[in-house]
Structure prediction request, 568 residues.
Amino acid sequence: MLKSLQIKDYALIENVFIEFGRGLNIITGETGAGKSILIDALSVILGERASIEVIRKGASKTIVEAMFDVSNHRRIKSLLEENDIEFHDELILRREISLKSSNRCFINDTPVTLNLLKEAGELLVDLHGQHEHQSLLKNEHHIDFLDQYVDVADDLEKFNLARKKLSSVIQHYEKILSEKKFFAEKRDVYSFQIKEIDAIAPEENEDITLEEELTKLENAEQIISLSNECYEMLFDQENAVYDRLVDVQNKLADLARLDKYFGELSGEADSAQVIIKELALSLRDYKLNLDLDSEKLNSLRSRLNSITHLKKRYGNGSLKNLLEHRKKIGDEFDLIENFEDKISEYKKEISKLRDECGLIALSISEKRKKVVKKVKQEVENTLKNLGIADGIFEINFSLNESDDQTNSIPVNGKNYLFNSKGIDNVKFLISTNLGEDPKPLVKVASGGEVSRVMLSLKSVLAKSDKLPILIFDEIDTGVSGRIAQKVGQALKNLSSTHQIIAITHLPQIASLSDYHYSVEKLKIDDRVVSNIRALNQSEKINEIAKLISGEKITDSAIISAKELLGIN
Prediction:
């Protein structure tokens, strides 16, 4: 349930805070008062596009914030958990649009992307704007209406994963096919390069290791001389460091017998002796083990030169690039050598994925067709209640067969074109008059009839719809009188299972509200602002009377308003 909506500095709205209730929430007001602005602002919080043009003149940013009761809403809970957002029974969506072109979105005060805000909104609200009448007239949208009734969301997700995988494999397959001639021409070149590189077979970072080793061997005499000098100074000459440390240690031992303070120093001197001796012996061992083999030196130079040559030729001076090049041409050479086997593997994988897509698409199609009869009956019954007594509603299914296996999937032995919705083409047909064959809505229905068909669909589909909130922006377009009463009753019935927020101009509909709000224009400090407020009982009577008689409320209009409200 939408508990509250706050709008700041949006178009003509300065600062509005509205609390909504369960059941049927009705919004009325004069044309141009700002009712549509209210719906537009709500669509912003649900993730629709918005520009800085919506920012009220003189303001630096627009803020729209909505609070929802989402207790026991498992899909919202899962969405928040997936995105590391703490779940509470109350969910707050907030969006800020500033003149600096920044667009900030929040869920429970956690910054989120616009896509995530929209995803949350789609789990909460079905906003039926005035433009949606037009979507009902377009055949390509009909499958979406039907899928609200059919539980195929998981199937469609599974199908699209398989579809995307199929598309990826086909792309790779076609790329390989297109490069077959190129690969064949490169075969001898790759073979030569592979043999040349593999003859040396350089290893990762080997050039660095060789350079270090060469530096050591090329300077071996200097290394031996200096290390020998160090060894002698430390251990193997008269008055060596080690010998002097022995003298120091002996003197410290004598001092320690006189003063305990020197005991610790004596121990440190002893440790110093050990360190000096180990250092000296390490220098000696290094000197003795240093290889002065000129053949080894020449061998290292030769190998480094070979690697340097390969680096320049195939790696742009880099051993890493060289090794990457070897892997690339190796993979392509293997592909060339085993081209037919690789093509065969791709064909098998494509065939497997096409079959998988076909099976899932068939399952989705069967689920859709299984509910057709039920949806037809329920929509026709609802149409009767809305004054289209002889209405006939049909759901037509068609498939597009194709010989192009690349763009089709097999179902029951035939190949059909497909898209993200599967293989089905769904079209709604209607007849609103006795004796007329059902035809596309665009050719049959008037504006008022389209409104009623839409409401019929919403009423039927909402029974299985997981969206708790339905918002209608002037669903009463093109209807009046007795039909208006029926439309209002349909909304009232729908509000028993859903929170309904509806904008209307008709008193018959407004009178059925559980909560009534009025949108009005006010002049404040030489500025026009739109405001919305909840009406009490007496204000509700006057508002409905205004809908009946216009701005000048007559006594007869008051009486009619009370009659509509069932007030004596």
